[in-house]
Design brief:
This protein has helices at 13-32, 38-65, 68-86, 97-120, 129-160, 162-170, 175-178, 180-200, 208-215, 220-249. By secondary structure, it is mainly alpha-helical. The protein has two domains: 11-65; 67-253, no CATH class. The chain is globular.
Length: 265
């Protein structure tokens, strides 16, 4: 006897409202702690829900329009948003920081999304927003976080190890050799969130895309295949963005005379 395909689950507005009760209950518990975080958490949660609902509307509109240039425009705007967020909170004043972030994050999304969408998944048509937008979103999130964490950690390590870096320079080391340790520490830090996830994925955590596909009625092995592909894409995205960030920024911490700058060190 052939087993029937699992039925796909659906979500209604009423279901979302009931799910919101769980958030409300935890917010009440948070409020009783007197930490002053309730409003911040409520705002962040509400904004995230609104953004997800807006994403659904945008995807529906893109499918109806069925024009490649609207999809490309959407992906470009998503990339600009990732660049803005990826450079948010960086205290050091590197020249052309936004352009560097655009080069790092933009190159990453072009390469990883292009490779996965057109060489692995062979999506048709090539500009299908149903696949490109979610895939680009995942890649952009990892590239953005990697870029931000790398620069934050690299600048902090340069400040902490300033004397060590200057001693290496005085002994004849070039710029690249003098920052080898800060670069290694910064790339390791950028990889840490994903690294923690990779340790528990499949053992404790079920990947989000796998959960979504199982809820939508896909077979476990099909969902597993897509989850594995997204893990590969996430690792490639975060590594590519951090390596590009390193290549494009580490020399900017130094003067043309190979001296560590005061304002960024």
């Amino acid at each position: 006897m052939i087993a029937s395909a699992p039925a796909a689950l659906s979500i209604t507005v009423a279901d979302l409202a009931v799910g919101g009760l769980l958030v409300a209950a935890t917010l009440v518990l948070l409020a009783f702690q007197g930490l002053g975080l309730t409003r911040e958490v409520l705002w962040s949660t509400g904004r995230a829900l609104l953004q997800v609902l807006l994403l659904g509307a945008v995807l529906s509109l893109l499918l109806d329009l069925d024009r490649w240039y609207w999809v490309v425009t959407t992906l470009f705007l998503m990339t600009l948003a990732a660049v803005h967020r990826g450079t948010h909170g960086l205290r050091h004043s590197l020249p052309f920081l936004k352009l560097i972030a655009l080069a790092s994050i933009g190159t990453t999304v072009l390469v990883v999304v292009g490779f996965v969408a057109w060489l692995v998944l062979h999506i048709r048509p090539w500009h299908s927003p149903l696949y490109l937008v979610p895939l680009a979103g995942m890649v952009l999130a990892n590239a953005m976080n990697g870029f931000n964490l790398f620069l934050c950690r690299f600048a902090a390590t340069i400040r902490q190890r300033r004397d060590e870096v200057e001693i290496k320079l005085s002994l004849g080391a070039d710029v690249r050799e003098s920052v080898q340790t800060p670069l290694r520490d910064a790339i390791r830090t950028a990889m840490m969130p994903l690294g923690n996830l990779l340790v528990v994925v499949g053992v404790i955590q079920v990947p989000g895309i796998m959960t979504g596909q199982l809820f939508a009625g896909a077979s476990p092995m099909t969902a597993t295949g897509f989850a594995a592909l997204m893990i590969e894409a996430a690792v490639a995205a975060i590594l590519m963005s951090t390596i590009l960030a390193a290549l494009l920024t580490y020399r900017l911490f130094f003067t043309p005379a190979m001296q560590l700058k005061e304002q960024v060190g």
